[in-house]
Amino acid sequence: MSTLEYFLQVREEKGAGCLALIDPDKVDRAALVDRAVQCSENGVDALLIGSSLLFSSDLDEAVGLVKRAVNIPVVLFPGDADHLSRYADAILFLSLLSGRNPYYLIGAQCRAAPLIKNLEIEPIPTGYLLIASGHSTSAEFMSDTRPIPCEKSSIAMAHALAAEYLGMRLVYLEAGSGARFPVPSDMIRQV
User: Fold this and answer.
1) 24-53 pLDDT, tens per residue?
2) Positive or negative: CA dihedral 169, 126, 58, 70
3) What is the pTM of this model?
4) What is the spatial distance between Cα 134 and Cα 143, in angstroms, rounded to a whole number?
5) Which reaction does it catalyse (predicted)?
6) What one-character-per-residue DSSP string does 136-152 give?
7) Between 92 and which of 54, 112, 126, 158 could a Cys-Cys bridge form, CB atoms 3.0 to 4.6 Å apart?
């Protein structure tokens, strides 16, 4: 079963899935594995590994350690085209639809696609919507993106519909690391 099929099965069975994001730059390797195991033991359906900035020189090592420690999918949440690991089960093949920066709409994807194919990582086409969170976040700054206003659910819904029409299988809504406010529940329901 592919990772995407697994996600869809989880949604069918539970109504929603729980994915935890772990930033390999924020913890040492032992803590990274410990967090992954804690997540797995506490009902998390899959792990996302990634960062807006990647200072770690060996993402392969980090993903490999996590993969060996848990029995749930380990999925890359890349901040850029070179944030790849051959040990990942899949990658959220992100297009930052809420922004208008061509690099994050299609440029990074063109750079990463041949590498992903060579590494045989399952790509999951994903529309990425950055939602305003009360202050500037790393994702907003690094992508040079104006986020969707958190009170404008109709704008988020239009972007999600566009993602669906473009053939994307998932939509990821995020307020960003260190957000003051989470993505509003009403917006999530509408999307």
Assistant:
1) 988 999 999 999 999 999 999 999 999 988
2) negative
3) 0.95
4) 17
5) sn-glycerol 1-phosphate + (2E,6E,10E)-geranylgeranyl diphosphate = sn-3-O-(geranylgeranyl)glycerol 1-phosphate + diphosphate
6) --HHHHHHT-PPBPTT-
7) 126
